[in-house]
Every structure is written in C-alpha cells, then in structure tokens.
Specification:
mainly alpha; four-stranded antiparallel sheet; two-stranded parallel ribbon; 19 helices; about 5% strand; globular
Length: about 525
Amino acid sequence: MNPAPTSPDTAQLRRWVYGLLILIAFAVNCGRIISVQRVYEPAFHRDADKQGNRKTWPTTRPDSNAMFGSNDRARWATIRSLVHDGTYVIGKRDPTLSAVALFGETNPLQAIVVYQAGTDFRTDVSNPLSHSGIIFKPGLKEHGWATIDRVMNPETLEFFSSKPPLLSTLLAGIYWIFFHAFGLSLIDNPTVVVRAMLLLVNALPFAGYLLLLTQLAERWGKTDWGKLYIVAAGAFATIVSPFLITLNNHTIGTFAVMLAWWSVLCVWDRVSRREMPGWPHFVSAGFFAAFAAATELPALSFAVACFVMLLWWCPARTIVLFLPAALVPGVAFFATNYIAMGQLRPAQSEFGGPWYEYEGSHWSPPLPGYTKTGIDWARRTGRETPGQYALHVLVGHHGLFTLTPIWILAVAAMLAGCWRMRDLWRQALFKEAGDFPWFVQPLGLVLTVVVTGFYLYKTDNYGGFSNGLRWLMWLTPIWLTCLMPIADRLAASKPGRWLAGVCLAVSIFSVSYQLWSPWRQPWIYDLMLEFGWPGY
C-alpha cells in the first residue's frame, strides 16, 4: 500500500504544526537553561560515617552552580582565563613539590593512594604553595573550578584544558561582551553568565536547527504524517536535547553539520533540476563542514564527503568557494592550538603520554597491585572485553539502538536505499532528480559504520558519565534525513504508524531520563544495577 501523499490543502496546517513543535521545544529548553543548576542527589552520595566510593553528603549548603562537572568546567575555566588573564593557562604546578616528595619518607602508602586514586591532593586550596591558577582557586563551594579534563605541559608544568581551544576562544569573545558591556563576571556572577551564554549558543541555534529540519522534511518527505514525525523526532527524541543545558562541543558540532548538510542538499536539488546552485550554499557547506570537523574531529569524514560530492557536481564553484570557506575554521583550529599550547597537534593526540599521565592525573594508569574503578577504567583494567564494550555501545546499557530505537528505522532505511543501487547509480551518473537524493542513504550508512567503528576501536568508556553516546550526536541531522523514506512508508498503515510511534516514545523517554543533567547514566544502566549488575 502506498503512503498517502501530501496536498496543498494541508501545507498551511503542517506549517502551523511545525511552528508549534519548534515553539514548544524551544520554550521547554529555555526553561531548563534558565533554571539550570547542579543538583545534589542522595543516590550519588554517602553519609560521612559510612565507607564507600561515593562522595560524602555536603555538610554545608553548596552554592548555586550552573556548571555540572569537569567537562564543561574545563571550557569555562579557559574562557575565564582568556578574558581575565589573557592566557589559555588554567593552572601551574610548583616543580619542587610532588606527592612522593611530601609523603615518600614519612608515609609512602599515602603517596601511593593519592597517586592511585587519580586525585591530586595539591588541588586543595589550603595548600597554595604547590599550585596556582583558576582550577585551583576557591569558589563554587564543595568542588571549586577543579576539572579532570586537563593536560599538563611536561616542560613548563602549565595546565590547559584538554578540549581543543578554538570553541573556547570563540565563546570567550561572547563572554568579553558580557563582562565589559554589562559587568557580568564568571567570578562574581557565574550562574547568570552561564545561563545567558547557554541561551545564545545552544537554545537559539537549536530553534534554527529545527527550522532547517522542517525545510528538509517539506522538500523530501512525501506524507503529512512522515514529515511531522521527522520534525517531532528532531525536537524531542534525540540526544541533542539533554545536552542543551550544558556547555559542550557536541550540540554546536551538530548544528554546524545541519547547516552544511542543508546546503549540500540544496545544491543537489538545483543540480538535479539542471539549474545552477547559488554561491552561498558552497560557502556555507565549506565553512560549516570544516567547523563541524573542528568541534568534532571524526566529522572530518563528513567534511571530506561534502567536498567530494560538490567537486563532482560543480568543480569550479567548489574550488573557488567551498575550499576557501573551509580553510577559515581549519586554519583557526590549528592557529588557536598553537597559540594555546605551542604546538599544532591537539591535546587529544597526547593521550597516553606525559601530557595526560602526570602525577596525580585522573588518566594515569593504576600502579601494580591497585585497581581503579569507574566507567573510565572498565576496559583498561580488564573488567570488560572489547566484545562486551561493542555490545553495550550498540544494544546494551549505552546502546545506540536500545536507547534511541528510531535509529533502527534509520539504518533500515539506509540498507533499503543501498539495495536500490541500480537506480542510485543512474541518478548519480546522470544527475537525475529522484524521489529522494541518491547519496543520502549510502553516505549515512558509510558514516555510521566508519564513525561507530572508530569509537569502538579508539575508546573504552562510552563518553564517560553520560546519558548516551554523545560522541555520535553530530550524525543526527544525517540520520533524521535517512529516516524520511521509511517514515513515509510506515505512514501508510496503522501497524506501521504504531511501530514508528513506539520507537519514538522510547527514544523520547530515553532522552528525558534525569533531564536535570545530561551527565547521568542511561536508564538501562540504572535498571541493570537494580537487577544486581555490579556496574563499574
């Protein structure tokens, strides 16, 4: 049975529904951002008189704080340092002091415990002689500005955020305006500044992201039900939503991918109709594809794919417009990294070396005879095999397809699209217009396999203490586009609509679980703990 097509009579109604969906999603997330603060939950603490790995319950009321933990504080510290101190350095170590030097002769066991725990006792602000800098200063009661997402230059003993500095540099420009124009400071008014900046860099771009999604749905969707399904999924059922309340690279990278992806599809739409694409689309595709790669390094695969396709369709405009635009964020990425750290290589390339594994670092391997606990050490300490890790990444407690089953439908659409290779090749070779762009599903499948395989090979901790596979977030615009044909197909029957509805409901449930913080484990993880699984 073929899906019922759309008609001009329903176009205005669809636009009204799109507007309502965007308005609701935008307003909900603005409310979350305006009220965002770190919540102290009893489940993650213990009483002071009890033993355990969890932190003790605060004895005094903590200050209100809109920063969640190490991941976002590493960026906020860099932003603060750039505006107030004019440097990327967020801390400095005294070379004459070390855990072994202070404890080695009198209490060697204590030195080993300090080192093993990955907790640098010198972050204690009561010992100002050993460290200096933002991440060792008091403030934000109970946890200060401390972060484990830091690296230390082994030659200068200066600490930097482990995050690429380009994004923090751009955000420091926004904070500079807040500080100098309005007198709002991360030192005196951290909660106000954090909330205001999150509205600008997360909430507003999210509304624009959804608006572009409606345009893609209108152009390539075939049924009213399927189009509305795609927009509802983008607004409420992906991991983008939980992360809007925290400063991170994943949401911004996702918005950049959407802008580049929309531009590529616009170019193809014109080429397939034998029309000359407008030059702004080439500039947009080049700039935002490269910017996405600068914020999400594996998105370089997407940027290369965009370049190859546009070069095939319009060689001259791609070389003249796409490449120069792509060079801007590319040069900025390496330039800021060199200015910050004195080298072109990003800090992540130093993982496993002295930049990461200095004394007291969270990332230092355990000493012989000791075992580190926590999700960051599950595989490195032999408690989880690569096969088990892959299982949980795909269908387990952090499962891409168990937490967000709408992506099962998207992968099914990718496979079905690739099955029609004969038609796809004809469209590709002769630049024919089809019911759906020929390259979307093959490209979606290739990127999904390559990027997921990369993370299965290179990582071992699911993105840390997180409610889902945040590293794959940037693929969301491509997956949603791949989902369109199967949403239209399922719209043709009641069982199909029920199946799609159940997948949507489970996906919304997963991204809404513990919505006050994205830095929480998924509901499947907690359910496994309830059934006796020991966790990490």
